[in-house]
Amino acid sequence: MEASKVIHAIYNDDDVLMSAVKKVKAAKYHIEEVYTPFPVHGLDKAMGLAPTRIAIAAFLYGLVGLTVAITMMNFIMIEDWPQNIGGKPSFSFIENMPAFVPIMFELTVFFAAHLMVITFYLRSRMWPFKNAENPDPRTTDDHFLMEIPVDGNEEALQSLLSETGAVEINLIDKAH
Amino acid sequence: MYTFSNKLKTFSIILMVLGVLGVGYGFMTSHKSLDEVKTMLAEEASHHGGGHGEEATHEVAGAHDTHGAHAETSHGEDAHHGDAHAEHVQHQIANRPWSALYVGAFFFMMIGLGVLAFYAIQIASQAGWSPVLFRVMEAITAYVLPGAIIVLLIAIASGTIGHYNLFIWMNPEIVAEDALIQGKSGWLNLPMFAVRGIVFIAGWSLYRHFARKFSIAQDSAEDKSNFKKSFRIAAAFLVFFIYSESMMSWDWVMSVDPHWFSTLFGWYVFASMFVSGITAIALITIYLKSRGYLEFVNENHLHDVAKFMFAISIFWTYLWFSQFMLIWYSNIPEEVTYFITRINDYNLPFFGMVALNFIFPVLLLMNADFKRVPWFVVMTGLVILFGHYIDVFNMIMPATVGDRWFIGVPEIGAILLFGGLFIFVVFTALTKAPLLAKNYPLTKESEEFHY
């Protein structure tokens, strides 16, 4: 259930933000989102986000690339038209393999890299004409913003956030 | 301070004793007279040919009366050819204990030298993660001086007290008939070989001596002057090292095949020694930590060392393949014989080491979580060390014993002998200084390092 009201707590220092995130987590509030102008080291751990699986995806994409390279060259150079090109042994794949290794390597890297980047774009919903989801333009410059849903506990939440060193606390009604 | 446990000391001495016995056995059994070799070859031929159909038909043909005279003449030729062949085999058999000893000595010297280069790089690059491992690295480099002297002595002894068992260019009779070696004799001659070897060893040992001295002096120093000095000599040593290591690899390894040459050989040998050295750092660190001596080393340091093992294994493979593929592709006869003998006579070790040194570490050390698990790194490390022993084996043996190779008593004896000596020297050096380099400017950062 998406809350119709959220609180935006704004900070202007990443260390303050980190301790605020830990306090809010300790008080058992759900943090909807944190907007920062740059990567804050350890923020994902403090928020309790699950580790990324993109490296596993990249490994699998690399295997796909290796398979494509091997299948392609085995078909073209060995099965379809095994010509004698400069005395290279085209009798079997293994005999001519050293000549294929540069292509096998490059296609492995190519598939792993590009498919991983595309996966990243898809999973993080980024594309050229996408509308920016930025709640406050200052978060791209020097401010940090924590978004917490309000479920009728507005007073307690506001006092907690002001204790954590927020420079600005705004109640936002998302339902309009 | 580390105390060398009596158990480990006894273990290393047992290894050395067993090793000496194995090496001695190798030398005792390698002196074969020409007649013995001939009988051996005849036995081998009957064993090999026994099942062949061809042989059977020959025997049937031999039953004909007319065959008598014919058989005699061909036998005469056979015997003549057999002499040369048997002499060749006799020489190969005599070479085996020398080569086994040399491969073992070089392998452990290579670990020490690889660690010395790694250590100098850590200091010159002012790495913030590694200072907690400096004392382990310094202890391993204690083996460079004895190890390199042993390698050089074996090389020279093979040409003076031995019968040119490793380097045929040391044999004046062969050089007299060989225009190619004559052309190289300006570089490949025994006095120059010895002088170059002494210069290399002196350079490496001097750096090791002063690096260790400044490192220990920094422990109780008030200022950073020792740190600055060790930084400067590390930078200078790395320049000296890359030249001397390259020439060392021509002298001590490539010249066993004096007709062959390769331009990236120095780098190839370097990659092999670098990854073996880093693996040795990981293994000894894990051992010491399991004994409770390195409480300031955490799994993040292990992760970084394992990353180096992973990356340099790939670097080694890159150089191995670059050397192999360039020669395979152009297939120039004077270069390609090197690989033809290896593929024909050393098929399993030659391609097996690619599996051990590349596929195995790549698949096992790719996962970031696995790099933090000590037993996983130990397992991979043992495979890498074994793979690089096979690498040195593949560089030396085909030139000296040819297809008469086997990993038997002389080879294992040499591994035990130098492995025992290595453990003894390294762990004795570990007892000489505290295990944490105090007052080194980056020690604090290293202690709190986390990845």
From TrEMBL, chain A:
Keywords: Membrane, Transmembrane, Transmembrane helix. It comes from the Bacteria. InterPro entries: ActD. The chain crosses the membrane at residues 54-77, 97-122. PANTHER family: LIPOPROTEIN-RELATED, QUINOL:CYTOCHROME C OXIDOREDUCTASE MEMBRANE PROTEIN. This is DUF3341 domain-containing protein. The lineage of its organism: Bacteria, Pseudomonadati, Bacteroidota, Flavobacteriia, Flavobacteriales.
UniProtKB/TrEMBL annotation, chain B:
The chain crosses the membrane at residues 12-28, 100-121, 142-166, 186-207, 233-253, 265-288, 308-328, 348-366, 373-390, 405-430. Keywords: Membrane, Transmembrane, Transmembrane helix. Residues 44-86 have a biased composition (Basic and acidic residues). It comes from the Bacteria. Residues 43-86 are annotated as: Disordered. PANTHER family: PTHR43044, QUINOL:CYTOCHROME C OXIDOREDUCTASE QUINONE-BINDING SUBUNIT 2. This is Quinol:cytochrome C oxidoreductase.
